[in-house]
Protein 1
Amino acid sequence: MLKDNIQKALAPLNLEQVAAGEYDKTGYHLEVTAAPEQMPEVAKAMLSLGCFLESLTGLHYPEHFTLVYHFNNFRELCRTAVHVQVPLDQEAPTISHIYPGANWYEREAYDLYGIRFAGHPDLRRILLPFDADFHPLLKKFEEKPADA
Amino acid sequence: MLERGLEEKTYVLNLGPQHPSTHGVLRVELEMEGEFITKADPDIGYGHRGHEHMAENRTYPQFLPNMGRVDYLHALAYNQGYCMAVEKLIGLTVPERGEYIRVITAELNRITSHLLWVGAYLLDLGAFTPILYSFDDRENALDLLDYLTGSRLTYCFYRFGGVPVDIDDDFTEGCRKFIQRLRHRFADYDDLVTKNVIFIHRTRDVGFITQEQCIKYGLTGPMLRGSGIPFDIRKSEPYSVYPQFDFEIPIGEQGDVLDRYLVRVREMEQSLRIIEQALDQIPQGPIMAEKVPKRIKPAAGEVYTAVESARGEFGCFVVSAGDPKPYRIKLRVPSFGNLSILPEIAVDTLVADLVAILGSIDVVVPEIDR
């Protein structure tokens, strides 16, 4: 079982959480929480098991960003969601040298949120114009939504 | 050019943003030596409308029409992906007849998308006639969808909990006629295109993608299956009523442009099979779930659903904070990952082949830009 193999491969990394997910509720087979600096190791482990990076995106919370990496596999279905909390003023390490496909996803996260990825070869904006001076998906927490 | 430290014999060419072969506003900056490409850098975002930002400012039902405008060629797959995500969040089950109607319409829509691709792609390669045939066929399918959904391109047809309109005998009859007609036409397509020597020479042994590259770049859809990996969400992570149908996943052998073409053509035949079976098996019953909440306010949590669109895996990642509006919606679009491999496979090819490669990716640029 791929799920067990992933759990086995991630065990030596001492991650905060590696647990079976509730597939019926969330669509995840495995839920993983990791620290930013552990991410390259996690990516290497996932690649060695033949998983691909399905999606990478950020979430903006008042105290931190959360990067969500989704991995999946072409041979056997096993969606692994990796949540990584990144403090608002810190960089996250890139995984684009492991998964070249992450290059664009990281550029997108930088573009939309301003999250910087240390070691990224080409961290430019990707969707917005290069001279844009804002990151559109940052939330404004001081305002209360009108209908709340 | 010299400012960039390039040699004098290198020159820079802009492919696009208004180039017919880029199918939308995509610009690719090419550095070339003679006719050979040394570097390709796609520049995307010309059509960035901020769908993901809109999502955070709208209630769940208000965001539904947006889903027809992300990938306008296979809009119903996007409808379905988003509806499935919300249904999962609030725990709604779609009645079986509703699921059947979703499958029939989504597969019809997949055929229209592939037909457009076949025509437009051959036009890129310099063959003018096929687009007239494929648009003729596509028109038939669009009429059927128009009859049922009321629109021809940017569909907003599925609802949370089912579909709003039931199919009738006219629609069923029309579908059967269309299936029959298209099967006949596939023979013409084969004679006209697939066996055409010029076409084969343009596409065989061009733009190879290895299985390893597929994993590293996260390719999905015909791009992936052309390289011989049988990964199709309809089979590998079955949703809706797809497990009840008998169909195959066509795959290519060596992962070149011709393989990707063949995969798409064969996929249309499989879609016809699915529609035919669905029309035969469709049960009677309700098309909408009985208790759809008037105000949709899911509990806090997150959900990821995936569907197979004409271009690959469309993933809808919804994070709810317990509000009537989503906290975050990330649309995992297949073309984004599929295009990101272009800088790697374009190197050392001729600029004329780049048009063949770019077309074979089947990018829908508004989907990448979102």
Protein 2
Amino acid sequence: MNFRTTEENIFKILMFISLIAVMGSLIGIMAVVLIKGGAALSIGMVTTPPESGYYLGGEGGILNAIVGSVYLASGATVLAFFISIAIAIYLQREFTSSKAAGIIRTSLDMLWGIPSIVYGVFCFIVMMYLGIGTCLLAGIIALTMIEIPIMTRGMDEAIKMVPPELKESTYVLGSNRIETAIKVVLRQGLPGITSAVLLAFGRGIGDAASILFTAGFSDHIPASLFDSAAALPTMIFFLSALPSPEVRDRAYAAAFILLSIVLLISLASRLLTNKFSRYIIK
Amino acid sequence: MPAPQIVTRDLNLWIGEKHILKNINIEIPKKEIAAIIGPSGCGKTTLLKCFNRLIDLTENVKVKGKVIVDGENIFDPDIKMIDLPRIREKMGLLSQRPYPLPMSIYDNVAYGPRIHCRLKKKDLDETVKHYLEAAGLWNEVKDRLKDPATSLSVGQQQRLCLARGLAVEPEVILCDEPTSALDPNATRKIEELLVKLKKDYTIILVTHTLRQAKKIADYAGFVYFGELIEQGPADEVLVNPKEKLTKEYIQG
């Protein structure tokens, strides 16, 4: 065996190990959550809010947290989407110089690296100053701030991949910059843009630290933006800190529900994107 | 010789520190095929991009001099960004590789008419048919207008790009080595189309295949490292050039 085949084999093995590590983690997490939480799962768990004594092993479910999480994450994702798409379009060559774009990209990367608890504390202070206190709205704002850098950078990378010649050909047809961006660039970048939205949504629905301070916690389903709201991550956090093992298993069941929501949404949007990406130039 | 369609006056262009075009004074005649020939990387495409100000999309560009289209200097400092679509829609472009828009065949041709005027569905259908016919593509695609443009072959895509450009009703068609990615058969179709189209359009053809220029061009300019060495009727420049550099290039 000569040196080159040895080299190739070593890298093949390394790649295979990496694959196993990633797939193994995914399967491992799913398995643990299912095994530990399976017993606690029931229809009642997803259809009723907690009754008194739920945290000591009493009756009820975690509908409040499911609804809270869906409200928080979708509200934040929708808000972040409109802001991010505007920034991502603006970062193109036609709108801003590459120097300015570089500064914006660096700032976004720095924002991406800020721990979510810091966003939570920051929003908490702002909300206190405004006299709003902990509520669904405050949670949505904190999550929006966390999601924007992730979403914008993802969309930015997707838009950068659009071939410049494609843009040229729409300018030649007499389009202005906005028409080109909306009718051609966004369409061509759609798969990457969807991934960016999903990535941000996943981060939003899974974050506990930022909403702990801002959305608060409640056993009731929030009826307005100014009610405090529970969320699945905070629910998992509280349940898993309780002394009784049966109640702790409910934390795993809640984690299973959280994973299912993320999986379902990412599958649905993948299917949707495939339908729309029929026309994309490869 | 009829009045020229495009005239450049002392056109100089820099990208960063690099001096790409040097004192270009070219006169493109109306409704003829003007070939711009020269070695690769000598500024032919850059010159072409000046004619419709597509060059604005390149970073660090500095332009001095005039490009006069229909009596209007399109590099006049009074011309604002908002006027660019008006200048650009006078010129269709065929690039080296076809870049269909990420839409159906029908929507590709309808793209231009849709942004310029509101047509009724029936009129739009007629327009699309008309320009697909003009590009010699109608018979091949009439049954699958809703298919993605990418489902066509490269040669068909290039003709689709031509149809899409014609649908904006330009006066000039800029061709940047439009056949370099095509097989001989598709190349011949494009060449025949260009000859047919010169009745109604001024055509500027950037090419480095001399054979193509000799075959279809009426007028020719030879560009060598950013300078226009020679221009004139094609049978003079391409057969009996006056300049030594042109002679050397043509004889290979």
Protein 3
Amino acid sequence: MKERPNLVTEICGISSPNPFWLASAPPTNSGAQVRRAFEAGWGGAVWKTLDFEPIVNVSSRYGAVDYDGRKIMGFNNIELISDRTLEDNLAEIREVKREFPDHALVVSLMVESKQESWHEMVKRVEDTGCDGLELNFGCPHGMSERGMGSAVGQVPEYTEMITTWVKEVAQTPVLVKLTPNITDIRAIGRAAQAGGADGLSLINTVNSIIGVDLDTYRPLPHVAGRGSHGGYCGPAVKPIALHMVHALAADPEINIPISGIGGIQAWQDAVEFMLLGATNVQICTAVMHYGFRLVEHMVSGLEQWMIDKGFERTSDFVGKTVPAIGGWGELDLAYKVVAEIDQDRCIHCGLCYVACEDGAHQSIIRTEIPDDEFAASAGAHFETSGKRRFMAGAGGGYVNRYEIDQETCVGCNLCSLLCPVDDCISMVSRESGLPSMTWAEYQAKLAKGEVEEIRPPQHR
Amino acid sequence: MAKNPLDPDQLTRNFAEIRPPITPDEARAQAARCLFCFDAPCTRACPTHIDVPRFIRQILHLNPAGAAETILDSNVLGGSCARVCPTEVLCEGACVDRILQGDAVPIGGLQRFAVDWADGKGLSFFEPGIDTGRRVAVVGAGPAGLSCAFELRRRGHAVTIFEANDIAGGLNTVGIAAYKITTEYALSEVERARGMGADIRLEVPIDGAGLAGLLVEYDAVFLGIGLGATASLGIPGEDAEGVWEALDFIFQTHRKPFAECEVGGRVVVIGGGNTAVDVATAAVRLGAERVTIAYRRTRADMPAYEHEYELAKGDGVTFEWRISPVECLQRGGGLTGLRMQRLEMHGQGREATLEPVAGKEFTLECDMVIKALGQQPLVEFMNAIDGLEVDRGRLVVDPDSGVTSVAGLYAGGDCISKGAEVVNAVEEGKIAARGISDFLDGRGER
């Protein structure tokens, strides 16, 4: 048996037993919760955002997007920051930190935009012995109306200014949590760095309206019939988060570490964030859905993957995929793949066919094979019951065979993405006959007459 | 014959539906499994071609009313078929989830969910077509006749259904094991045709002369007459008290309270088809102590579906293979046993010849024998009609229009198939309705 990898992770000087932290959110609202989380195996936690006074919340607060029978593909909330007193929170932070000295305990902060307020809050919080601070410049609902949260994180100058105030007094590392509700995440990331941030956390939630009740015409969630835009999170936002994490990781002007957040529910999601440049990850929605025990599977999956790939510590692979992503203009026009259907694995559902025909490039050929002929050729067999015979995939006397038209397939991936059978449709390399070239190089070669014009794809 | 020994509550429990309705949560979860196949094998395998992926997606997307409409649009007895269809060998047998997940999407259960939901809300989806002034007579209010009548009404033709029995619905109402479908449910689906304005006249038997009259009086006639009496055993003592025809035995469970149904203590069922299983399992449920199915061939040759065989086995029914009855033994007019003869099979399958094994006779003690040998065609009726082509007991029809060899006379159901499923009869009724409509519009050949 191979040795277990070392999952101990360090981000801007804060160490934790593994890279899985709880994000600042309802699961980190109290000492009892964070204690149970650490006992369950979480490496760190960012305490739910503190202000001097507890806020008043509304009822109800959460909404969800289900997808064809599965619950909570996306989730939103209109809950605000901590609804408990600062004194209670600070006492519990102090206690939990003493009990779990090796775990990372970071405290999320959000106070009015006054230098002295920030100074006072930083000092009082750091007095608990916590490992670091996270500045909540991301919350897009409620607090932003009071000039806090994303109201700060959407303006580079404010972000830099308040980060500077915090750094004037902070003794522990400072992470700045960014909002995705901006046009270019790099501007805010650079501003936070300019203000002295030791690290960046992203993404906070995406501005959203989760839905409408079709019987009452009320927004969801609603408070006495009225709604408000809320913060969107959960599995559906992961690709947005991955893009933003990568944008910062790939930015030559940014050189502070990143804590990745957004839709992580399985170890694979965490690994993707880390391959795209996140040093560690933070998780909330999945825990709100399934509880703290989720971390067991995350740790186990990460360990097995690292053993499989030969990584000894997480820093061995953080950022590994960052250089492979760039502009469209850097892509090679000579690269060509086409789909290939493994007829032995095909279950004849026809999803690839109709998707290609209606939604893509009309490159799958359907042939009705008489079922007797199919059974004989494919080694399939009819089942009999009484006087009837039947076969899965057969009906009306035939079985549909689906094949790729290799001449017209543009290699878009659609069929392979939606095929319900693992490894049934694969994308295979084909010689395109073109020299390796980017679009710009192609333009240059065309101008010089070095290549022929690439003809448009054939459509049936 | 003694009344059965079980108390009414026990009997009610015994006849509880073997496929109880699925809950909304289960419906959603199962609907989510459907892949939404293109040119779906389930739809192709359904004789009535219900758009299964479509109705399942309608359930998934919280539109059970739309789902019910999809189902009933293709099959006016969609609720009955959801209960009595051998889905294992039809839609669900073709389901590709059997390859992917090892188990079909429960299409029958979902179909029932949608139709029951709509019925619970009192929804109906179809209206009669604009009156064409044409009049069609339908003989037989079974599944074929009801389906044909429903489709004819959608096209605006007036329909009168003549039914010999005093209850409508044919075998769907009184000929299927009561734990699969209740009498009340089957009758509720009769109302789909009646609700469209089909005039159903009960206890009006039609004979050859009557049919000739209908052909003159109406613009077209549809025959959905089914089959006749069960074949006889042709052995001594067959007229003894305690010797029953299979359908009579099933009829009683639909026409009388279970406590008043007659059943023997030791019952022998002769036959190997699905009706034999229906009868045997009903006998067990009515309280018979021992039920035996006696079949002259082997298990592999049984016409009963695998799932029916398994059901009977699960009910504790015992099987005797390669035997046939030679005499009903009686004392004082009452049945005491069945003299049986062992058979030897020469050859394979249903083509094999059967020969008695010399000296291998024995007696099965019993007080009830139920003949489930299949119904005989109504040959006399069919022969009474001039020019009506009949092939080995089947009325010959054009598969695309349902027209017989007699102009204006159409047919469907068991009288053209010699016995198939309710769902086949529904489709044949639909086909004939299209054929009749084309004929009346002058598009079809006369």
